[in-house]
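hey all, quick one before standup. I had two proteins in the batch that finished overnight and I want to keep them in one place so we stop losing track of which output belongs to which input. First protein below, input sequence then C-alpha cells straight from the run.
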Amino acid sequence: MTLAVCMQGITKRFPGVVANDNIVLNVEKGEIHGLLGENGAGKSVLMSILYGLYKQDEGRILIDDVQCEMDSPATAMKHGIGMVHQHFMLVPSLTVLENIILGKEKIKNGILLDYDGMHKEVKEFCDKYRLNVDLDSKIYQIPVGVQQRVEILKTLYRGADVLILDEPTAVLTPNESEELFNAVRSLQKEGKTVIFISHKLKEVLTICDRVTVLKRGQVVGTINVANASEERLTDMMVGRKIIYEFDRAATATHQLVLKAERLQALNDRDFPALRGLSLEVMNSEILGLAGVEGNGQTELIEALMGLRRLTAGKISLQDTDITKMSPDERIR
C-alpha cells in the first residue's frame, strides 16, 4: 500500500469544541477515498488542515512519506494538494480560461501574455481529463455544473495530484452529479487521488473505493465500499438505526394565510429566477421548498419578505395585498 496522504494524530480545537480529536487518515495513491459524516462531524475542518487553511494543534501530515508543514494553501499546492470548495471561488466577470490561469499566467517576449499558448495548454487539460468547457465563456454565463468543472481544472492546472472535493454535489442536479462522477473516474484513471467529502450515503457507495467515517470529530472507522452498505454506514455515522417512516396525523388546515400569484423576479445577475410561481400556505401548515441550490429558493424568500422587487405577480397576506409593502410593514 502506497500512501498519498497520511494524517497522524490530528487534533484541532476551537473555543468550546474539539473539531478533530486525534484523527488518523490514510489515503492510498490513485484511490477515491470518501470522508463521510453528519454536518459538524469535522470533515471540512480536517481537509482545511490538509489544505493549509487551518493549522492543527497536534499531529503531523505526511505526503508521499515526507512530513510536511501545511502553513498555507500555497504550500499545500506545492505538495500537490488541491481543494475544490463547496462554494466556488471564481471571478464571474472573467472567462473560463482567465479564471483557470489566474495567477499562473505565462509570458512571451518578456512582457506579453502568451494567451494562445495558454489556451492550447488548457484545452489539452480539458481533453485529457474529459472536462469539456467553453474556455471563452464568461463564468456568469455558464451553469453551476460547468463552473464546478472550471474549479477542478483550475486546481489541476496548478499541479494537484491529490484533489479534495468538499460536498461537490450540494449544488448539482442529478444529471450534473453523474457527469461529476464520470469526471472523477477519469481523474482516477489518470493516476490522481481524490478525497470525496460527503454526508450522502448513496453517492459515497457509488463513487468511492474506501470510506472513512467521522463522528463528533473522531474516526469511527475506515472500510472498503465493496463491504459497505447504507445500513452499516448509517450505524457508523449516528450510532443507531434510522427510522425513515413516521406515523403522523394529518393537520387540519382551513384558513388561507399566504398566497403568491404568478410571481416573477430576476436574480442578482438580472436573469429570470422566478417564472410565474404560485403557492398557497394554510394556517398550522409547514410548507417545504425542495430543489437544488440556485433554482430560485432564495429569490422567492426575498420576494416574500419584500427584499427583492417583483417584476410581476401579487402577494397576499390574510387577504391583504402586501406586494408593494416594505419589509418592515410586512413584519408588522
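OK second protein, same deal, sequence then C-alpha cells:
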Amino acid sequence: MSEIEALVAARYGLAGRASFLTSERDLTVRVDASGGESFVLKIANAAEDPAVSEFQNRALEHLERIAPDVPASRLVPTLDGASEFLAEKHGQPHFTRLLTWLPGRPLFGTPQTAPQMRALGTALGQLAKALSNFRHPAADHEIVWDLRRVPQLIPLTAHVGDDALRERVEAAFLRFRDEILPLAPGFRTQVVHNDFNPFNLLVAPDDSDRVTGILDFGDLVSTSAIYDLAIACAYQVAEDGPPLAFVAELLAGYHAVHPVPEREVDQLFDLIAARHAMTITIGEWRASRYPDNAAYILRNHARARAAMTRCAALPRAEAQSILRRACGYA
C-alpha cells in the first residue's frame, strides 16, 4: 500500500491512506486523503487495451459536460493536468486514473419499491440519453458481457453443472440467436453502461429510493440500447408476487426519459432471459478458471437462476403485454 500511497502523492499531490476494493479486472483502491476527501484509484491490468480505458475516461468527461446531474464519478487531474497516465510496474505500463468517491450505500440488499424502480429507470434513461451522441474509436470493442456476443457463449454452457438449468440457459441463447439477432439491425445503437446492476448503484443512506451514484464504467460499449435496458431489468425481477412488477416500473421510468420503440419493447422479455443465461454461463465458466475468486465471480448467480425460473413460468405473450403497458403501448 505504501507504493500506491506514494504514487498518489507524487501524481496528485494527495497524502492519504489507501485500501483495496474488490474488483474483477482492475486494481481498484480507495484513497482517503488527509484533507477528508475520498477517491478511487483504478490501475488497469497491463493486458487491457489502453484505448478502451481512454474511451471510458472520455465518456466520463462527456457526461460531466453534457449531463452534470447524472451521478457518475469525475476524473481527478494529475498535478500536470492529465486525466490519466501510464504507471509502470515490472516494466509493464498500466493505464491509471483517479476518480471522485461517490456518496451513498449499495443498492444491493435494499428493499425493492416501485418508487425506487422508477428512480433507477430514470437514472439509466438519463445516462443512456446523455451517451446517445457520444462517439469514440474504441466504442465498438469486443467484450464478453455484450449481449451481441451470446452466440459465442453457447459452447460455454457445458460449464453449467445443473442439467435442467443448462437446458434453460441453452434455450434462452438459441432464442436470442435465432429470433432476436436477425432483428438487431433495426435496434437503436449507442454507447451504453452495460452493467447497471445493484452492486454498481448507490442510494442515499436515509432514502433507498434516491439514486446517488452510478459506478463502474468498465463494461462500457457501443451496442443496442435495448440490451443495456435488459441488463438493468434482469436484476429487478421480483422474488415474490408478479415477476415483472418492478421491471415494469423501471421500464416506465426509463421510457419517460429515453423512449423505447415498440419493436424493441416486444423483445425485452427474451433479452432479460438471455442476460440471466449470460450471468449463469459466464459465472460458472470463470469460476472454474479462477476458483480463488469464485465467490466474487458468482455473486449474482443465485439471483439470476431464481429470476430465470420465475420468468420461465410466465407466458411470453403475457409478459410482452405487461411491458407494453408500462410504455403506454397497450
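Flagging for whoever picks this up: The chain has two domains: 2-100, 105-326. The two ends are 57 Å apart (CA to CA).
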